[in-house]
Amino acid sequence: MARKVTPAPIAVHITALEMTAPPKQSLPVPVNVHTAILNAPDIPLAFYRFLYRQVGSRWHWVDRLRMDDETLAATLHDKRNSVTVLYVNGAPAGFFELLQLDGDVVELTHFGLFEHALGLGIGKWFLLQTLYAAWTLGPKRVSVTTNNLDHPRALQLYQMFGFSPVGTQDAQLVPLSDAELLELAKRDCLAPA
């Protein structure tokens, strides 16, 4: 009988950032790639989990994967939450998720590109489109958190676009166990189309 092994926690240093004015940058649409950015108001859970895993697996994103269907559906389909998908050359290539915390604050809860979209010169452009979308909601500030497990240039990129650090904290992240990964694979294979 196999023993359940719980992975060792990973130390995480989290930085909270805010911006209080829309970005002033302007970037052209990337050349030699066809892009589309589509809001997904009733995103199916299996598709969301696919996006989340494709973007977040290398950065240790686990929270949404541990949610049961009911909790995830309530989170995603909350009227204050929006998921928007980036397509490159016809295929999903990334996504961003915004949460309108109140009339004053919009939180960028998730942002990232699939591995196949890295190196195409679209990362900065896509972040700028994300920030434009956040500011169209009329907040007084936009917030985001990043941590030392994210892309090595994430903090620098956020600051380049006008975010300023407002706090830090240390936490522990427990990676997905082999048993959890197996359950996720089974759930994803059995998810209705």
UniProtKB/TrEMBL annotation:
Q: Cross-referenced Gene3D superfamilies, in alphabetical order? A: 3.40.630.30
SUPFAM superfamilies registered for this protein in UniProt: Acyl-CoA N-acyltransferases (Nat) (SSF55729)
Domain N-acetyltransferase: residue ranges: 35-183
A Pfam match: Acetyltransf_1
Q: Which InterPro entries match?
A: Acyl_CoA_acyltransferase, GNAT_dom
Q: What is this protein called?
A: GNAT family N-acetyltransferase
Q: Tell me which species this is from.
A: Shinella sedimenti
